[in-house]
Amino acid sequence: MTQEIIKSVTDIQAVADTAFQSGLMNLANSSQAVMKILAGQEMGIGAFTSLSGIHIIQDKPVIGANLMAAAVKGSGKYTYRFADFNKQVCDLVFMERIDGTWQEIGNSRFTMDDAAAAGLLEKKNKDGSDNNWKKYPQNMLFARALSNGVKWYCPDVFNGTAVYTPDEFGQKVDAEGNMIEGSWQAPSEPESLSINSLIKRYGSEAVFSACSGIMPDDEDPDALRALQEKLETEYASAV
C-alpha cells in the first residue's frame, strides 16, 4: 500500500501536508512529517504508522516496543520467544528462519539489576514523580531486551537503521513503553545557567530537593554546574 500511495518526493510532501493540516498526528509542521515518512521508508514502515509511531530524537529514529515487536514478528525471517519474563528479568531468545526451520541465534537479557546499574530506577520525571521503571517494570524490561536484541541479531528488519525505544532517550512513556504524545519538545535556544533556568527545566521541587534546600547563588557558576549535573543524573529530563 505504501508503494502504491507514495512514489515520489511530491507524494511524500502531499501526504505530509495533509497529515499536518489534519491536526491528528501532533506534528509541529509538515517538514517534521516528511522526515518521519522518510525514516519509515528506510525501515520498511508505512506512512501512517511512521507518522503516528516514529519520533526523531537527537537525530535518531525512536519507536515504541510494540511497533518494534510487530516488525520482528512480521518479517518472516526473525522471531523471538520468552526464556524468562517477570518483574525482575526479561530474557528473549531470538530465532532466524534458516533453510525452512527456526534456529536460535542469540539471547537478549535485561534485568532490574541492569536497570539499577544504569541509574534508571532512581531517575524521576520532570514533575518529581516516579518513572515507569518503578510503575511498570515488566514492560520496561521487555522494551530494553527487545531493542538490544534487534540491534544485535536482526538489524536488517529495519534495513540496517539503528532504532531505539523512547525510554533509551529519557522520554516519558506509557504503560506499554510507547512515547506519550506531546511529552517531548525540541530544545529551545540555550539560555544562561541560573536557578530560574534549572527550575524551568526540572521543576522547583526537583531543584529544591537536589540542592537540599540551599539554593546556590546565580553568581556561582561552579555550584550551578554541579547542581545541573546532579539533576541530569537523578532526574529524567522531559526535553
Brief synopsis:
This protein is α+β, with helices and mostly antiparallel strands and 239 residues long. It has three domains: 2-57, no CATH class; 65-122 and 132-169, no CATH class; 195-234, no CATH class. It has helices at 2-5, 9-22, 30-42, 47-53, 65-74, 112-117, 132-135, 137-153, 195-202, 204-210, 221-234; strands spanning 54-57, 60-63, 78-85, 89-98, 101-111.
Describe this structure in words.
This protein has 239 residues and is α+β, with helices and mostly antiparallel strands. It folds into 3 domains: 56 residues, no CATH class; 96 residues, no CATH class; 40 residues, no CATH class. It has 11 helices and 5 strands. Strands 3-4-5 form a 3-stranded antiparallel β-sheet. The chain has a two-stranded antiparallel ribbon with strand order 1-2. Helix 5 crosses helix 8. The two termini are 35 Å apart. About 3% of the residues have low confidence.
